[in-house]
Design a protein that fits this description.
Layout (H helix, E strand, L loop, with lengths): L1 E7 L5 H6 L4 H10 L5 E8 L3 E8 L4 H16 L2 H10 L1 E4 L1 H12 L11 H14 L5 H20 L9 H13 L6 E5 L3 H12 L4 E5 L3 H11 L2 E3 L4 H6 L3 E4 L10 H10 L7 E5 L16 E4 L1 H12 L6 H20 L1 H26 L2 H28 L5 H11 L50
Parallel strand pairs: 5-6, 5-8, 6-7, 8-9, 9-10
Antiparallel strand pairs: 1-3, 1-4, 2-3
Length: 464
């Protein structure tokens, strides 16, 4: 059973979301402990607006699924009490609801900014991270591949991602609206990642001529500054640069605030800028501007929650594309769920496939004397032979018939060395242990090529 535990901007504000945010170190620890006897796969999505854990539970029994959810929540938060607190806030989804949600995330339908162009890259990065942690198995691989394909289709087949659609761009637009004109405003951007780059490009497009870029890696700041016609400044000067700015946009991945109240106060005193109006915009999660900065005169702080309302206004321009994007998502979800439904059929046919491939490979190799040709020919022969049985098993799955009897029969017929009590094939299995194939038979005496009878290729219909 596919499950997810989700914290996003719709159910939790920034302060709550950052409490459940996982650092890279904590994520590594989670991946080390997430899997168990019943939880065979896990992957976490983390963006500025959501943190969601997806997992495959090797059972569809409600009690087992509920126990898996509680275990995952505790390992996410380290303690039982914090895990219970997480579950009080989080949204739980199972089965097709969980699959539909992650596909809609990839499409930009669940973003704070409808059609967010950055979300697909963030999802892909999360998928790669889970793959490197060896926690994503066949089901989650298939799920994320389906979601990424849906996201790409939405981008190319609909106008959902057209126009302004990133948090960075919307922050620049909000700053322009508040000042009326950015031509004479000094703008500081802390962070030169994707979100920061979007903000910088939009500020430049809106006429900002005095644009300063600060980043931990100075060379990255220089590259972005050159692109937008600004200048780069060392990271250590961020508080002084902020004190001299009219607009400060912070978009970094730091785990602690990079703009502190004390640092900004000292910078303003040094620059004789105490009391001057400043607009600070924090696009980070966890928040990277210390909230206490608002205690200083003249400072207005905008965070992701505050930015949500102007973003909603921009969303109306992309509403018309939602039905098309939704139809694309439903098509991909249907294909994924069909793949899930056919898992027991694939499990049941494995011993027969292994036995046929072994026989076909040896017999073709005897005639061809070429391992490569033998491998390809054997695969094609087996695929044709199994077309009928696989179709019959799929029909049985669609009718809701259990495959236990068929699976046991195939194991007994083609895997005599397998354990006496083969496992039950369930629709919720993520993987199946390939049974050992041992064919006990006398060796076939060599036959001269001229005496060999032509092979008979049977059509799939003869097996149905």
């Amino acid at each position: 059973m596919l499950i997810s535990i989700a914290i996003d901007f719709r159910q939790a504000d920034v302060a709550t979301r950052e409490h459940f945010h996982l650092s890279e170190e904590r994520l590594t620890q989670l991946y080390r402990t997430a899997r168990s006897e019943i939880v065979t796969e896990a992957a976490l999505i983390s963006t500025c607006n959501r943190t969601e854990l997806y997992a495959w539970v090797d059972s569809d029994e409600p009690a087992v699924v509920d126990r898996a959810v509680q275990t995952l929540a505790r390992r996410w938060m380290r303690t039982r009490a914090e895990g219970d607190q997480l579950l009080q806030t989080a949204t739980r989804r199972v089965g097709i609801d969980a699959a539909r949600h992650v596909v809609r995330i990839a499409a930009g339908l669940e973003s704070q900014v409808l059609g967010d162009g950055q979300i697909l890259g963030q999802l892909k990065a999360a998928y790669k991270r889970a793959s490197r942690g060896h926690t994503a198995g066949p089901v989650l691989h298939r799920l994320f591949e389906t979601a990424l394909r849906a996201g790409k289709r939405v981008q190319t087949e609909s106008s959902l991602t057209a126009g302004r659609n990133s948090v960075g761009a919307e922050a620049a637009i909000t700053a322009n609206q508040r000042f009326g004109n950015l031509e004479n405003a000094r703008c500081l951007l802390v962070g030169a990642g994707k979100t920061g780059a979007r903000a910088a490009k939009q500020l430049h497009k809106l006429g900002a001529r005095d644009l300063v870029i600060v980043n931990r890696t100075f060379e990255t700041a220089q590259e972005l500054a050159k692109f937008v016609g600004g200048r780069a400044a060392p990271f250590e000067t961020r508080h002084v640069e902020a004190a001299m700015a009219d607009v400060v946009i912070v978009a970094t991945g730091s785990e602690v605030p990079v703009i502190t109240a004390d640092g900004l106060a000292r910078g303003r005193e040094a620059c004789a800028a105490v009391g001057y109006s400043m607009l600070l915009m924090d696009l980070s999660l966890p928040r990277n501007i210390e909230p206490a900065v608002t205690e200083q005169p003249g400072i207005t702080l905008v965070d992701l929650d505050t930015l949500h309302q102007p973003i909603l206004t921009a969303e109306t321009m992309r509403r018309d594309a939602v039905p098309i994007a939704t139809a694309i998502c439903e098509s991909e979800i249907s294909s994924f769920m069909e793949w899930i439904a056919n898992m027991p059929a694939r499990d049941a046919i494995k011993p027969l496939r292994a036995a046929l491939e072994d026989v076909a490979r040896r017999e073709v190799a005897f005639a061809a004397k070429d391992a490569g040709i033998a491998e390809r020919a054997a695969s094609r022969i087996v695929a044709k032979l199994l077309a009928g049985p696989m179709a019959a098993l799929r029909r049985a799955v669609k009718r809701g018939e259990p495959l236990d009897a068929q699976a046991m029969m195939l194991l007994e017929m083609f895997s005599p060395a397998a354990a006496p009590a083969p496992r039950t094939v369930r629709a919720t299995r993520a993987t199946a242990t390939k049974p050992a194939v041992v064919l006990e038979h006398a060796p076939t005496p060599p036959v001269a090529p001229r005496e060999r009878r032509p092979s008979m290729v049977l059509s799939p219909e003869q097996f149905t």
